[in-house]
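User: Before I run my own analysis I want an independent prediction to cross-check against. Here's the chain; please return only the structure tokens and, at the end, one sentence I can use as a sanity check.
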Amino acid sequence: MSARVGSISESATLAVDAKAKALKAAGRPVIGFGAGEPDFPTPDYIVEAAVEACRDPRFHRYTPAGGLPELKQAIAAKTLRDSGWAVEPANVLVTNGGKQAIYEAFAAILDPGDEVIVPAPYWTTYPESIRLAGGVPVPVVADETTGYRVSVEQLEAARTERTKVVLFVSPSNPTGAVYSKAQVEAVGRWAAEHGLWVLTDEIYEHLVYGEAEFHSLPVVVPEIADRCIVVNGVAKTYAMTGWRVGWVIGPKDVVKAATNLQSHATSNVSNVAQAAALAAVSGDLEAVAKMREAFDRRRRTIVRMLNEINGVECPEPEGAFYAYPSVKALLGKEIRGRRPQSSVELAELILEEVEVAVVPGEAFGTPGYLRLSYALGDEDLAEGVARIQKLLAEARD
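Assistant: Structure tokens:
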């Protein structure tokens, strides 16, 4: 087996979700907080568009590798509507989900040894995509004291002569952190000053709460637009995780290079899924508004319940649908005859003792934390956290 592929670890979030589903299928009353997946069905009008596409012989054949022309046009229009960034269809590549978008974007701009600054906690896929593309991820860690936001000073301290790209994610998976407009501007101007590329993941753009606001970096700092790549998709906004449609927006030469790569890797994205995505991005945001209301309610519940546990500290997330509590104070304490020394061991104990699945912070580059997705039903959420509360209340020195 090649060293490059053999060194890749499986997705920790998908692994936890698969284990939880397997236990549930075996009759165990497992509650899963692992996968970042809305529990809502895809809206009916999107499903109907897919049904109609199935009947259209045009979609029974190959279509352009870079995406249906009408979908690329609609993504450009949606980007202008939602973030204020004017792009052309030639700036858009439709991909098989956000993961392919991220990998192909990195593959298009990285040479072997190029460094990518990656704010941590990070989504588990980012460093693996960077390594696959020949790059070197350089983590910059933020913790709960700053709301999991990195500073320009931290980024500058990590910059070397090999630095080519800075990854920027707001709202964040796994922490739910949202950067203010001033913070977005500071990061963008710093990157522009040093001639760096920025890859920014905007998949959670519509999931912000309270006073927080989403700001698109190339809109806030337009001078970096020709060195900025945006990745996005329909998965989170429209409850379409299984449809596998994402996209890359960037300079035309980068998009062309990534399209060439995709033409050999996968060819076109499923035409039926593209037709569904076309209906999604062309429609209004009524469905996401209803989902956001439910997520906001669950967000406040989970943060309150987690912070009621002695030894747990959970900042209030401002976006996405994740809570990222620190459990460092619980490590080494005795819980039902065991002394977990890491968040991996604590997550295993929680699953085995109270049948609740969470993802340990090691998956996101920061040991000592747990990630819990609150994209599940209100009753399951309350029951799952109550089980964790009861278990961790037993912690003893």
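Sanity check: The chain has 14 helices and twelve strands.
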